[in-house]
Amino acid sequence: METGEDFGPWLARQLKLARMTQTQLADAADVTRAAVSAWITGRATPRSETIERVAQALGTDLATVHTRTTDTQAGLPVTWYHRPGYQDGGRDGGNAAAFAFDADVQVLARETCQNSLDERILENGRPVRVRYTLHELTGEALDAFRKAILWDDLHPHYQAVSQSASHQKVGRVVDAGVRDMFDKSRLVLLRVDDYNASGLTGDDYDDGKFAAVVRRQLESLKSGRGAGGSYGLGKATLWATSALGLVLINSTLSVPHEGRTERRLIGRLELPWRSVDGRAYAGPAWLGRPDPDTQGADVARSWWADEKTVESLHLTRDSDEPGTSFLIVGAHDVASLAQSTPDPAADDEDTASDDGTRDIRAMHRRLVEALGRDFWAAMTGGGSRLPLLETSVRTLRNGEVVVEEEKVDPTVTQPSRTRALRAFYDGTTVDRLTESGQVALRTVPFRLPLFGGRPGTLGTHQAVLLVTDAEDADGASNEVHSLRGNRMTIKKARVGDLPLGVNAFQAVLLAGHAAGESAPFAEEAEEFLRAAEPPEHDRWGQTEELTLRWSHAAHRRIARLTTEVNAAVKELVVARPKRSGGQESPKLRKALTVPRKAAPRRSAAPALPELDGLDASIGADGEWRITAEVKLPRADELPAMTPVVLLDVRSGSRPKLDWAEIVAVDGCEVEDGVLRFTPRARRAVFRGATDVASHPVRTALTRLVLELRAGNGSEA
Questions:
Q1: Rounded Cα–Cα distance for residues 553 and 313 (Å)
Q2: Residue-wise pLDDT tens digits, 210-246
Q3: Higher per-residue confidence, 622 vs 530
Q4: In 61-150, where does DSSP find H-type helix?
Q5: Given this model, what pLDDT does residue 584 score?
Q6: What tens digit of pLDDT does each residue of 677-707 get?
Q7: What dihedral angle (degrees, nearest 10) is formed by the CA atoms of 93, 94, 95, 98?
Q8: What per-residue confidence (pLDDT) applies to 132?
Q9: Which pLDDT score, from 0 to 100, does residue 220 have?
Q10: In sequence order, which ranges of 575-647 are alpha helices (DSSP H)?
């Protein structure tokens, strides 16, 4: 239950909103001017019979005065305030920040979830919960919503944009959004709610989170040390995803403002310059209560709404837990067109939009996909670490369920990477992969530069690399996902130049705070990598901030880290036995033979290297592509060996095939087709491809035998 505001501050604000003086209230309530002054300063409170007269004077009911959880509706009603045109005649064709992102619900999910992670309340240790609700309105529900947002006041501005800015991108998008709403009598709302977050705290105009989001551009005021955002651009995705440029906001504050925490409402509209009834307007507009402290009360500020108003605007929150609800009005997903496929389960109503950008089922699927792909690590816990994030998506039409609420499960969307991260948290990693399902750990040095372009190294941060077998549900295999403190996937990169036959794997790189608070120079690595991210936060590399704060060559430290990571990955995945039930077909496995001869034991004879594993596939040109592992005996000097590839036949001598190439991978070198092994190595790996010209028959019809022969291979 919400606690009402103290009577004095509440009454002072109501008088201001109603443009009523203390003397006027005293006359209307039949009390003295001194009594009203005592109420406002908190030196006294009115008796119950006096409160009834105060309510009548303010034009409200008794309950509002008793509870004081909302403002009265007297005096200055909620309205739209449009910023006047610039006096120097300048014009804006829209909010430039919105052009930094596409109209893409997956980009929206990435940016909004990152912002919610940054605003998570840390003291209670619980994750921030983010829910996405797609809600399509039609018929009477749409009419009621348009009435609630004062559409009749907005419509002339949309008409002006359609007529005067149709040659601009923003004008075309807005015109299409309005036509879709009227021609098809439908409107898609996309609401983003977070819970256990700080909420939009602070004054309407002074420095604070509210002003940074609602009033300003390119300003980022984040709570956490490992915050993901740093440009102040992420919030622009909210307006970019709205074809109408309209977002409504309801925030429950973690820190009271004006003695209140619940149902702080405001709306912001982003349109290009326009002229309505001969008056020029610069661009943005705000839905709120006129601010009596501004000249002519001509500026709208946030207001404390009642529950009925919140419900009519589709902004009712599930609980009084702190956080913010953003309602994107006229949501569209233009990026979905590039990868959309028809949904056989969808009926004609589900695909009512001609271009598919407002297909609520498709938008639902893409939201779930993006959350699982980008935030699997933030949703994973283990050991003493709890998840930082919980996410879900639901889809409605006129209040009725179209797609049930779907909680995003990282063990389903990213099973291998989730397994790797949990093993790190649980302390169950291994040094070397020997069995399927294991997670190997390596620390990788990340040498941090000094500030200001000074030569030298500040210190070495030990990033954590985790490697495990890949599963089909992971998507693309043989990739490294890199992340830092907020555990959002920042960088995805495929490990190249891998030898043939390597088991499919997934790798995770934990840097900065993600590597653990006790990791050396974790704070400095976090700061450096954050500065190395562009506004999209999808890679680490050269940025202007990196150049200004460190040097123009600072990004080379990241390139060196990438090289170290790839080398460590190859070390872990190459020199390991092929897991049973590998990716080759049973028919192909039958075609591979490693001959083993039972030789008499000779104690004086030197031990020889022997083949211990073989993997092969048929290449695009019909060649055999082979990866072999050699077990090396304990010896200071090992004899050179020559790999010989033969075709297995039922009778007669085995035809010998020529090598097109032989390449050393680990523990050996290749010289003129002869293997020379690294002293004191225990295993070696090489790969090769046969020369198709030496094949007597089609490769698919043959069986392969690989032998190691001492010396140059002339003898078995």
A1: 51
A2: 998 998 765 555 544 444 444 445 688 899 899 999 9
A3: 530
A4: 62-67, 105-118, 139-148
A5: 46
A6: 888 888 888 888 998 888 888 777 777 888 8
A7: -110
A8: 98
A9: 53
A10: 586-590
Q: Identify the band that residue 527 occupies on the pLDDT scale cut at 50, 70 and 90.
A: very high
DSSP state letters, 134-163 = EEEEEHHHHHHHHHHTTHHHHHHHHHHHHH
Side chain identity, residue 50: T
Residue type, 294: T
CA torsion sign for 75, 81, 83, 85 is negative
Kindly tell me if the per-residue pLDDT of 75 is higher than 90: no
Query: In the structure encoding, which two tokens stand for residue 100, read together?
Result: 């930094």
**In this model, does residue 98 exceed pLDDT 70?**
no
d(CA 179, CA 225): 45
Three-state DSSP state, 638 = coil
**Rounded Cα–Cα distance for residues 210 and 250 (Å):** 11
User: Alpha-carbon distance 395 to 102, whole Å?
Assistant: 22
CB atoms within 10 A of CB 188: 27
Would you state the structure tokens that stand for residue 60, as one six-digit string? 């409200």
How far apart (Å, rounded) are the C-alpha atoms in residues 14 and 51? 14
List alpha helices for 375-497, DSSP H: 410-413, 415-426
Instruction: Give the separation between CA 485 and CA 463, rounded to whole angstroms.
Output: 12
Return the DSSP state at 253: -
Dihedral pair phi/psi, residue 570, rounded to 5°: -60, -40
Alpha carbons within 13 A on the beta-carbon side of 157? 24
Q: Which two tokens stand for residue 11?
A: 């009454």
> Can you tell me the distance from the alpha carbon of 175 to that of 325, in angstroms, rounded to the nearest whole number?
26
